[in-house]
Amino acid sequence: MRSGATxxxxxxxxxxxxxxxxxxxxxxxxHRGARRFQQRTLSVVSLVAGTVAAHATVAxxxxxxxxxxxxxxxxxxxxxxxxxxGVAFLQRRFRRRPLDAAATAGQSRAALEVSERRFxxxxxxxxxxxxxxxxxxxxxFVNDGWLEFSGQPPESLLGNGWTQxxxxxxxxxxxTSWRAAFEARRRFVAECRFRRIDGEYRWLLSTGVPRVDxxxxxxxxxxSCVDVTEQRRASADRERFFTLSxxxxxxxxxxxxxxxxxxxxxxTLGHRVDDMQGRPFLDFVHVDDHAASMAVMERLRAGNDLxxxxxxxxxxxxxxxxxxxRATTYPDERLIYAAARDVTAEKEAAVALAAACxxxxxxxxxxxxxxxxxxxxxxxxxxGVIGMTDLALGTELTPEQREYLEVVRSSAAALLRLMNDxxxxxxxxxxxLRLEPMPFAPRDHLLDAVKPLAAGARTxxxxxxxxxxxxxxxxxxxxxxxxxxxxxxxxVNGVKFTAVVETRAHGVVLEYTVRDTGIGVAAExxxxxxxxxxxxxxxxxxxxxxxxRGLAISRQLVELMGGTLWMRSAAGTGTTxxxxxxxxxxxxxxxxxxxDAAARRARSGVRVLLVDDDxxxxxxxxxxxxxxxxxVETVDTGRAAVGAMAERPFDVVLMDVEMPDLDGPEATKAIxxxxxxxxxxxxxxxxxxxxxxxxxxRCIGAGMDAYLAKPAAAELLATIDRLVRxxxxxxxxxxSDR
Length: 738
Hints:
Blueprint: H1 17-28, H2 32-61, H3 67-96, H4 101-125, E1 129-133, E2 139-142, H5 144-150, H6 171-184, E3 188-195, E4 201-213, E5 217-227, H7 229-244, E6 248-253, E7 258-261, H8 264-269, H9 273-276, H10 290-301, E8 307-314, E9 320-330, E10 335-342, H11 344-393, H12 399-429, E11 438-440, H13 442-459, E12 463-468, E13 476-478, H14 480-497, E14 500-506, E15 510-516, H15 550-560, E16 564-569, E17 575-581, E18 584-585, H16 597-602, E19 607-611, H17 615-627, E20 631-635, H18 638-647, E21 652-656, H19 664-674, E22 684-688, H20 695-702, E23 706-709, H21 713-726
């Protein structure tokens, strides 16, 4: 026999060549007792061999028996078959050798003794329980295995005594099944519980086959019993898990048919299990998922160990539910084992979450746009208020008038800072705040940030110090506007709460510290002080005004720049704020110092086209520009600006962004389109009171050269000076250009 091959065994020994040879020997024997004993021996040997081999094959296929142990059982069968062959060989010798009666009788007795010993060896060492019956069905023989199993003497099990071991609940069923098989002379197979010596009932698989005497016909049954309790328990455990699983479990074939399903299928989809078993799984899959599901089937057929995928299955009511699958394959058996979990709720939750996120983002966008619009509406008149106040302060005034105007300007500036804070909070919440890296000089930058607060500090009788460490580079690259904003927020707090304020900057990674000697912050309030609209002292009698916006905005700005904002403070001991900002070393900036006003006037006389739909803004800009010696022409629409540029030469254009009819970016595109093929390119500066995220990019993308937020008188003059000096001379447009 080939190693690893699974033999096929005949149910009855009379069908084998060995059996035929043995029976021929029996017919040649002169001793009837020897013939019957030899017949019984071969019957038992064949039955034991078949039982052992069949049991080993089934157990190995079910995964209950390792291949090595199954091989040992097959080896036992081989030994038993060898005994049977030995008996048959003896009978051949008896048939072939003609002896006298005495010699024949002697040799027959010797052969009988040999067969007896071999029979005892087989029955005593067989790993199963063996039994024989007579032609009336009464048990006439049991092997010693029954004694070890039941603890009962073998003679107590003869006849019908064996039934006392059968479980009372199964005794009638077992006896009825046995009598039916016996009367029909057919193979007998049954499983029932037998009481073991320790009182435990064990499941035994009983198998019996008819014995046939060549001369007398039916002689009874030869049978065996095998303990299959552990196999049944393992099978029952698997069945319980299969039944109780909340997940949908299935076994399918390579043709895509559902061979077995657990109860979870009916609970989930509503279809009866019997209605689904045997049908192709595609009958229940959403048509849009057919192609993807068949691609998974191909991967499984190709032998992929574990495949994960999702598809939709149709419910009994016509709806569909999402299933998340894990599947593995057994190519030798052409079977696929799979488990599915209903993830419809998770899918719906993900869709709902995405929709909620979209709504939240849209809400944030609408809020930001609303605030930007409000900011535009506030900035526009505020630009006029501050600008006109500055112009008025430049005239001859009485001390009382100057005091009033300075209060107006200070109040307007405070209102503008409030609007900027609200806009910045909105932008940071929406993640739309952008940085603008550029070269700047940290020393000059720090001094410029401190100067606006010096007068207020002196008014309160405070000492304000600024210091820059020697290791700070001359030029770095960062966002000076946002660093200035954070510094001003911290400095304003310092001036508000203290008697002494110190400001220092250190290192290439700029570290700013602002220390005051004010009221301090209690330890339990440190975490809340950086939250928006939170204050350390929120009582109606607090000593300082403010709504807690500055620190929240400052922290978000510092984190946006990649730095950290920190605080050290205790109640009554003052506060130290610090923040770090990573910067890059920059190229040294050459600062041009004007020796006197005459040099400044040398660059005056710039021809300016001012485009703004607000009359107050136009008036303010004209006054500021004319005061610095520039020539200004105004228009109130983008379309008028395009026409003016086509008719007259200008050195620079100041373009409002938000205008009716044709806005600033569109007007700029039209102007740039006319300049194609012309060497001269007129600088265009965007002026806006809105200053929302994305506006700068939109303006620069349209062809503008700079972007300024109103009010920006000083910055506007500097920008005009920079752009006009950089631009080449502008020749007058030719008639063809017009």
